[in-house]
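Before the break, one more example. Copy the sequence into your notebook; we will annotate it together after we see the structure.
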Amino acid sequence: MSTNRRNVLKSLGAGLAGSTLGTFGLAQPSHAEESATEEKYRRATKGLPPVKITNVKAIATQPKRANLVVVKVETDEPGLYGVGCATFTQRAHAVVSAIDDYLTPFCKGKIADNIEDIWQTAYQNSCWRNGPVLNNALSGLDQALWDIKGKRAGMPVYDLLGGKCKFAVDTYESCGGSSIEKVVEGVRKCKDEGFRYIKIQLGGYGSTALASQKPDFKAAGFGYENDSLMDSYAYLKGTRDMFAAVRKEIGDEIELVHDVHERVQPIDAINLCKDLEQYRPFFIEDPFSPENIGYFKMLREQSSVPIAMGELFNSPHEWLEPMVNRWYDFIRIHVSQIGGITPAMKVARLGEWFNVRTAWHGPSDVSPVGHVAQAHMDLAVWNFGIQESPNINEQERDVFPGSPRLENGYLYINEAPGLGIDVDEKEAAKYPIPEVDLNHWTQLRKRDGTPVRP
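Here is what the structure looks like once it is written out:
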């Protein structure tokens, strides 16, 4: 034993003895006390032996309306496994295949502790990267590895990320309605439930309920049965009127959020943001599509409305320059789409230097596992902005024991080691995802039938 270590142990032993003797003086530690202290020191500093990955598998389930995909990573330590969210609702089967056919053979035999190494090598393994299918598969793996690491350390994941800097995660609730009166009614209800931040939408994304029910393209036999009409003017006018009514009826206490969902032309979005300044929105989300990022500089020069952006992003090349240039106030990345906790924490740390706050994308097509993973990061990062509130039903809670709870607008997670959530595979099997599940809600057209690209 080295001299320095022996001196440390003697000091620790002396401290134990001193606490026993109180004010009667400091006695030299006995041989037994020194041995006991040395054993405690050895146990605390020896580290843990590595564990290897024995299996990676996808679990697909639909306990609510969304197709959810989670990953389970098993290890050679009996009973030790981790879970992570890999949900890409619109292409769930493709994600399952990416996990089972590619990540499983890639990961078997690797050391589960080496999260960064596994992430980097898996990320480039297909050569082509930054696609939502492969990134979601990688996210499930990544979150599951963080879950394992937390369980091994006996700590919640947020402790591994630096520890809490807030007692709970503040959230916003969504209020939509086919009329302004219904939106106002919903805001009142959410306020009574304790929410301080509320998202308001009139007639869904793009306010399709305000458009004509007999669009010209359908009369001409163009398009498809499930296509809907979006009237940009009706949406823009309705959104302005909605903000005015909510502020008049509810007042200024509640922070208001709105999602343009990239449904209108950039110039129309800029004018909308300018008009909404007077109503002090907490943020306006996704005013432009990823293809129109160049308009953010113009928007920033003309409006002080806070902007949230990022849920469709796959690659760092899409968010790096806008964050550095402070074109966004909130980075709203879909965590599983960029590859999990490992890259998301890098984005959060980047944002701290440029006063960009986090507002992870968290709708119903993020699994409860994904919501929990986001909450662990929210608790640990200083530049947290807001979190979308999860609406988890009873079936989901049966499938995912340990799901988070909402109280007075705050999200609380379990304080268990790891992510603190599990997946019950027998319950999950009760809700299989459909063999074919085509996505229709994004299929909007203009009056003449031109597709609206969100």
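Residues 159-416+440-452 form a domain with the TIM Barrel fold (CATH 3.20.20.120). The chain has 17 helices and 16 strands. Try to locate both features in your own notes.
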